[in-house]
Amino acid sequence: MTTSSLCQHIKAADWKSEKHAPGIEAPDKATAGEPIEITLSIGKEIGHPNTTEHHIRWIELHYKPLVGNFTFDLGRFDFAAHGESPKGPNEGPVHTEPYVTVKASFRESGTLHALSYCNIHGLWESSKALIVE
Q: Could you confirm whether 54 is annotated as catalytic?
């Protein structure tokens, strides 16, 4: 699959109205070089299932400065426990929730991009502008 055909399969939506789109909670402005907290989550406004059969497997966070052509990978966060067990689906002792907070510092304004993967409904994206002063 080429990059252009992959992009056609990524769904975008407002995370407040769609339970698959990754929510990005971060300040609108940051001071250059000072770390800020960025929280990524799925289902804050509308819950997403977290079962063996239907779950979010991972969320990625990227940053695209306003100037330049390159996007920077800030992290990939895997959620690996969804109630699997030898006893059967959803009988396991643990479920990981698709929620993570990361700290990063920036020197240039740009856009945070989050990408998530639902094992049933595929790839979803969202973005948030960040002004660096």
A: yes
